[in-house]
Structures are given as C-alpha cells and as structure tokens.
Amino acid sequence: MNGWPVYDVAADVRLLVVSGMPALPPPLEAEIDFLWAAAQRRMRGKLFNGRVFSADYIEPHRIAGHWTEFRRIVAQMDRPELYADLQVRPLAVGGVIVGPGGVVLGRRPTGAVYQAGEWQLAPAGSIDPGAARDDGAVDYVGQVLTEMREELGLPAGAVRDPRALAIVEHAEGGLGSHVADLGVALDTDLDAPAILAAHEADGNDEYDLLLVVPLDGLAAFVAEHRGSLNRQAPVFLRRRGLLG
Fold it and tell me: What class does CATH assign to 6-239?
C-alpha cells in the first residue's frame, strides 16, 4: 500500500489559477524567513524563491489553485505542522514514458535538495509560471515536455498521446511535504539506445543514472528498489497497466 492520498483525475484534467497567493500574519512570515535563511545556509545560497503552482482543490476534471512562493514550500517541508496555516500543496508533474524498450526511470543524485538518491519516473518537476496561459489555465503537458527536454534531452516530438493518470499527495496522518505529483502518460517510438543517447548528449544532471527498464523486468526492478523508489512511481505504473 502506498499510504498517501491518491486522487483520480480525468485524462484531460484542466489546471486553473483561481486566486492570488494569500497574505500571512507577520509572526508566520517571520518564521518562514527564519526557516528560509537556515535552508539557504544549508544549500550555500543556491535556493531561488520562484513561484510554483499550489493546488487548492483537486477534482476529477479540474484542479484549481494559485501561485505560491518557494520559501513557503521550504518552510512547510522543514516543519510539516505549518501546513495547518500555510495549506500549500505544490503540484509537480511527472512523465511516465513507455517505448519499445520499456519505461524510463532516473536516479536522483545523493546531493539533491529533494528526494536525494531516489529512483523516479523521468522526467519530473514543479509547475512554474512558464506554463501559465492568458485565460488562467496552466499547461501541465507543456511543463512535462519542458522537463523532458531539459532533463532527458528529448524534443517534444519524441512523445505522443499525453494523458493524466492520477495524483499522489505526499502526506500521511496529516504530515508530510504535501507535494502533489500528477502522473502523465507519454508514449514514444524511440528505443532504449536512442533515449539514453539523447540523455547523454543533451540532458542535464537531474539524474546520475538513467535506465530504460524492459516491461518484462519492471516488476522485479520495483521489488529490488522498493526502498529507494519514490512512492508515487508504483501508483502511476499501475494506472498505466504495467504492474499487477
């Protein structure tokens, strides 16, 4: 069992920005400042206080939310009890790429800020304002294609038939980061050598190891790496009909 909330969504679920970032009382802002400064010291000033989409409501055909600042997310990750006041649910998008060679998975470096050393379905990343449209909609498919190009070195035309699978929220017993991962199925005609060559030539350092796991070896891979495979991956693989 995953243990985290799983939300069913339609294959063509829509994302909408429906409100602005809520104001916070000064004492809470001061605590966020303190936690942000501590995180910056840990990361030697490498953190950037950008904006990401936070889901306020998750419904099968619509996900409504607002743009929030990264410092609030960092504070909530450091002190999960702050969720009661912040109510931040950062929405991340992850591709489930399946081709003739199998499923694409990547291992995050041990020095990564988030989910260090974990295996995950690649690509993946937060939804930022670059995915915003003038009508208030958010192009999450465009976001996952951007992540794919940056992380794997694959152009948008390398995949087809994008469709949402489900959302898994990192929360248990009211605690956790409350990151909400939206899985997106993507099909490709590229074989494993072509995908790995693109990653080697044009991908970034998001993963220190990239694999294309054959479908007949997928269950064994999941079992072998259960302790280091992020918990949303099996959910998305089951939704794609690739795991029993």
Answer: alpha beta
